[in-house]
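From the pipeline queue, job 12 of 40. The input is one protein chain; the requested action is below.

Action: predict structure.
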Amino acid sequence: MSEEVLAQLKAYWSAKRVGTALPTRRDIDPAEITRLLAHVALIDGPDGEGGFRFRLAGTGVVRHLGFDPTGRKVGDMGQSEIVALVSDFLTGVAKAREACSAEIPNFGKSPSFGSIRVVGLPLVDCNDRVHMVLCGLNFVGAGQSGAAVRRQV
């Protein structure tokens, strides 16, 4: 997957906004982004305990991670430093209420990837609270990864 797919997902999400209002889950139509679905994860949260849970993960995400995170809490992924980075990123997306991107160390089972570039796109519920984050993931080869620094898109 290329950075272009992340940009396309962000453009799709931006097009679903009405003025400054954030899109809802209902606004996102998988049929409109079929080419991107393999590289997408939909994450519920934060829940009352501050946790996030993978609602679904695209086939490319599952293949590159080496496991299916669907239904799992981010906090159950094992490596505490990775869990903290992913949780902090998702919390930042929810608080910022805007598209954010980051590069985090690979938490999958394949050693051929050094990091994961991710764009996080907040989705709101009927009360305008961020309750999901739509993520696009780009798995970066071990020799091409950069620092794990959160940055705005």
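Job complete. DSSP finds three helices and six strands in the chain.
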